[in-house]
Amino acid sequence: MPAPTIVLVHGAFADSASFAPVTRQLLDQGYTVRVPAVPNRSLLGDSAYIRSVVEQIEGPVLLVGHSYGGAVITVAGVAENVVGLVYLSGYALDKGESLGQLQGGFPDSDLAANLVYTPFPVEGGEPGTDVSVKIDAFPSVFAAGVDIADAEVLAVSQRPLAALAFGEAAPVAAWKTKPAWGIVSSADHTINPDVERFGYQRAGLRTVVEIDAPHLVMRSHPAEVVKLITDAIAELG
Question: Which chain positions lie within coiled-coil regions (predicted)?
Fold first, then answer.
């Protein structure tokens, strides 16, 4: 099998730039990488968009999802040319399960008390609601372990997630048919690490690496993230 194209899928309150250190290292090692912008409008819509990106790539694809991006790759990963999934501090949803249901089974993280809800217009319908992290809380809650100057930039450029995405159930779970790997960020203040551990164990991930890392593990520990990705590719053969 030729080396797969690595598609990095960002999560809520972030954008493609959140993967910049990992992207640079993978490119330097000669891998083909794509880092699409996720709309963050709905789980079903975001997954359909990422699947459309994947299906237009010639050859095999390894999907890597961070945080909410884990839920997105869980659904989009059923695309025929996806050969594996990598979860980073992510939600490994089961079929019929929503983000709210999975997270609701565990004690709240520090995130819930630091969210901002903002209405946005929807053409021909009721206004939607954007969810973002309070700017002053972002460095400690979401970007702990990241250089404070970088964290402040990330805080004011975060990509909100529509509240709709929290309640939508995953129609499929790609990990049921595709091999998967994952990183648990044990110092995560955005997602309770037990949410990650539970989802990964249920999904039967081939390898789970636990790192004393914050939620933005690909910014704080890019070398470890790159190693898991390249190890997964080596295992796929």
Answer: none
